[in-house]
Write a structure and sequence with these properties.
homodimer; Nucleoside Triphosphate Pyrophosphohydrolase; 8-stranded mixed β-sheet; 14 strands; disordered N terminus; DNA-binding
DNA sequence: TCAAAAGTGTTCGTTTTACACCCATGT
DNA sequence: ACATGGGTGTAAAACGAACACTTTTGA
């Protein structure tokens, strides 16, 4: 029952999580687990969208958690098993398909095909499994700070169909070629992860964006409720902006959310824990549950 | 180098083609290759979107062309090889990912995972490889006639996010559960192909729809130009409607197409080959070429 | 009283949708 | 002349985006 006789099927998983600056400062004791280190030392990030990475075997390089498929195993099971075995996380949310990556740069004698999956997990659950011999850590994908800096460097975010540290796409009308042209880290001369894992993160992030592009409850789709029982609209907005890599106007966001069949409902609670006028708190209409996307 | 020792990787391909009633009548000599036979005998279909199928080995059942992955083979190559070997078609257009199907209904001792791909091919090329010992034929996916009948039976098409014979989705606001709930043939008690191939066709069709959902040239994305050098706007509209499983108003379609950065350009030719006022002919701005989608 | 963030009113322009009408051809 | 399909005018409705202003708190 050796794996050597047949093209290998690799499973790679992009596990996203979202954490505030405060979360990261108070809950991560080893700051080398947070990359890029300079970003987190020298500048403010606000809310961060992060992807879980680990050290590649015997090297400095960082990779996504991954493994190989075992005989007689269902593919979905394999992905969950990989997470359990490699990083010790027993995922409760659904894993979703990213696609297949026929990576030509893996250098061994066997062709390896990567099936990849993504999911969003609570930061609470993720932080517990950081560190260890594999140096499990978090790589910045996007943040409010990143978007601000990107905008300062590249002009208005409206030219882009979402921006992230793992790449972005031009809106067709602003694209040099009138297409949905994209730029990945490798195009920009700044590879982040080893192998083709930057590509995988990018496509996973593009799928994550879809969760926020309809009128439907994104957290139902993701299977988690990262905002807690009751939350400010501005919390929801910031979360959404970081996941989508786009910003919207405050009033526009509010009015879009508070219409007939919204997935949130106003509570009678208010929150004064932050400066400014107290905010009404909202709650999700329906609890997160298993759901099938397209 | 046996395949028995490891979970098998199957490749299934959904090959779409579009043909008019006249095409089908004049070019298909064996009408049993056209399914469902009753539909094509008894009622008018107009323009049809079809998927290529063949007989399952030693059975009446119909399946998608498929095969198994060979050692040291690139996944994209495998898909092209399968088409070449099984149905004798040397595809010139890019194959696109549908997803992975972990089919639990395949009954042999080994778990089989299906990587599936789709493409759109010219009817001209497809018709040449129909028939043969595998009874290669065409299965109706959607048609103008199908949409008309569906609308008569189920009410306005606006309630649906596209309809086809292989399933449809409700628009969230019309869905029983306020989701993008879907109905597949198996839910409707009318399985069409064997195994889980109905699902594969459905998801392939959902991807095909994307080709027509932006302002970009769908034929550039598909890699073919099914309409020829010059075409009527109504031809383009009918093609698009059949692929999307949605209908739009004539004037709205026209105005959406004829705006600043359209992918078509008006020619100085006119066509009087059909009743009514002669139509201006249009042509594609840019020739089909390799393109990367998301 | 001021800064900060929440929240509302109003306007303007664009896109969507609908409906009605006119146009040019073959029979 | 009339059926058939192509093509345009117009207007209401819906939506997106911008901007300015008010509200309510803590410091």
């Amino acid at each position: 029952m050796t794996n050597d006789i047949f093209p290998r099927i690799a499973i790679d998983v992009v596990l996203f999580t979202v954490a505030s600056e405060a979360d990261l400062q108070t809950m991560i004791w080893d700051e080398t687990l947070l990359r890029p280190a300079e970003d987190y030392r020298s500048q403010s990030n606000g809310l961060s969208l992060l992807a879980l990475t680990m050290s590649a075997a015997g090297s400095e390089a960082r990779v996504l958690p991954g493994g190989f498929m075992a005989p007689n195993e269902r593919i979905g099971e394999a992905a969950k098993r990989v997470l359990r075995e490699r990083i010790g996380l027993d995922l409760k949310v659904p894993l979703r398909d990213i696609g297949t990556f026929d990576d030509p740069s893996r250098d061994d004698s066997h062709r390896t095909i990567s099936f990849s999956y993504w999911a969003m997990a609570d930061f609470e659950d993720v932080r517990k499994i950081l560190g260890g011999k594999d140096r499990v850590g978090l790589e910045l994908v996007n943040s409010t700070g990143f978007m601000t800096r990107f905008e300062a460097a590249n002009g208005s975010l409206e030219k882009f169909d979402g921006v992230s540290r793992f790449g972005y796409r031009f809106m067709p009308k602003f694209s040099p070629s009138k297409r949905h042209e994209k730029r990945l880290p490798k195009d920009l001369g700044g590879k982040i992860l080893a192998l083709d894992h930057d590509d995988i993160v990018f496509y996973a992030w593009r799928k994550l964006r879809h969760a926020f592009s309809s009128k439907l409850d994104p957290f139902n789709y993701l299977g988690i409720n990262p905002l807690g029982e009751a939350f400010r609209l501005s919390d929801l907005q910031e979360f959404q902006e970081v996941c989508r890599g786009e910003v919207v106007q405050r009033d526009l966001f509010r009015r879009n959310m508070i219409n007939e069949d919204s997935f949130i409902a106003q509570t009678n609670m208010r929150d004064s824990s932050r400066p400014g006028k107290p905010a009404n708190l909202y709650t999700l209409q329906s609890p997160p549950s298993e759901n099938t996307g397209e």
